[in-house]
Amino acid sequence: MTALPVSSGSGSHSVFPPPANHTCFQCGRSFARVYILRRHEAAHRGQYPFWCKICGKGCLSTNNLRRHLATHTGARDHQCKWCSQKFTCPWSLKRHMRNFHQDKA
């Protein structure tokens, strides 16, 4: 397992990610934290705590709901600094940068 570098105020050290030893009995997916497993299992049961008032889609967190709402509003708040293309989610921009502008970083 590869250590992830983490910086601190007095220097830097390595931290290993926690092992993904909490497994969903329904699909076999593993999680590092038990609370994430519990949230995942609730999705299997259709128990979503947050619901889109526009289309009725269920979400597991307020962050997921906020990202989903951007699909209805058309909001694209994350813009590429190289080609000005806009994205609804920061990871979509990150994927775009990796795929199209990797040599410019």
UniProtKB/TrEMBL annotation:
Where on the tree of life does the source sit, at the highest rank?
Eukaryota
Molecular function GO terms recorded: DNA binding; DNA-binding transcription factor activity, RNA polymerase II-specific; zinc ion binding
> Where do the C2H2-type domain residues begin and end?
22-49, 50-77, 78-105
**Do you know which InterPro entries this protein is assigned to?**
Znf-C2H2_11, Znf_C2H2_sf, Znf_C2H2_type
What keywords are annotated for this sequence in UniProt? Answer: DNA-binding, Metal-binding, Nucleus, Repeat, Transcription, Transcription regulation, Zinc, Zinc-finger
GO cellular component terms listed in the entry, alphabetical order: nucleus
Task: Write out the annotated subcellular location.
Answer: Nucleus
Query: What's the protein called, per UniProt?
Result: C2H2-type domain-containing protein
